Each structure stands twice: as structure tokens, then as C-alpha cells.
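Review form for a predicted model. The reviewer records the input and the model, then writes brief findings.
Reviewer: anonymous (R2)
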Amino acid sequence: MSLMKKIFIAYIVCFAIGTAILFSYYLPSTDIVKITGSEVKRVDNDGPISADNPADGPTRDVYYIYTINENKKIMVYRNEDTGWSFPFYFKFNSADIQAQAQSANDANQISRIVHYGWRFNMMNMFKNIVSIK
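Model under review:
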């Protein structure tokens, strides 16, 4: 096999892996969970605002929803509007979703959460909720 064919195959494999990673992050997934709590935090580009991290730019409210699944695994979800920006979920109803989560918590119901993204504890990344049923 010639060197050009090997380079071409390596390029195609890298492109396929990169595409699979992007699809894994941005396509919606579903979890069946019981909502155990929720809260709102004021954040800026550096993360949640606190005494150690004062606001140094524009701020926004980010909702967090705490859940537990049937295997007793605890998961935290972010509930933030995507607006008109990428990814194009055109989500403008994070406050309504937060109210749904609070009512499901009060009624002690099982919920189906549609989300995108990954949860990385070390990087403080959360899955973003698209809808709750």
C-alpha cells in the first residue's frame, strides 16, 4: 500500500472519529430519573460567582436540576437556554422547564429528561436539559 493511501485512510478514520464525537455530544439522549432538587446559580464566563470568583464580565442565571436514577446513580443537569446560537435547539424556556422539574419533585414523580452534552466532574461540565416529560 502506498504512503498516499495510508495517509488518506488515516484522514478518513480521524474524520469519522471526530464526527462520531460531535454527534455523541450534540444529539439528544434520554434518561429516566427521579428529580430530587433544583437551584439557580449566577454565573459568568469563569463559572459560578462566589467570594473566590467575583463577577468580571456579563453574568447570567443557570438552573441546575438534581436527579437519581433507578440504579441510585446521582446526576446533575444544567438547564440553560440555547437561544439562537449553536447547538440549534432554539430553547428559550429554561424557566418553564425548571418549574416542571420543581413540580415533578414535589409530586415525587419519575421523569423523562431529554438532554445533550456530557458530564465531566473535573471540568465542571453538565448535560443541558432540552425537555422534561
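Findings: The radius of gyration is 19 Å.
Further findings: The chain has a mean pLDDT of 87.
Recommendation: see findings above.
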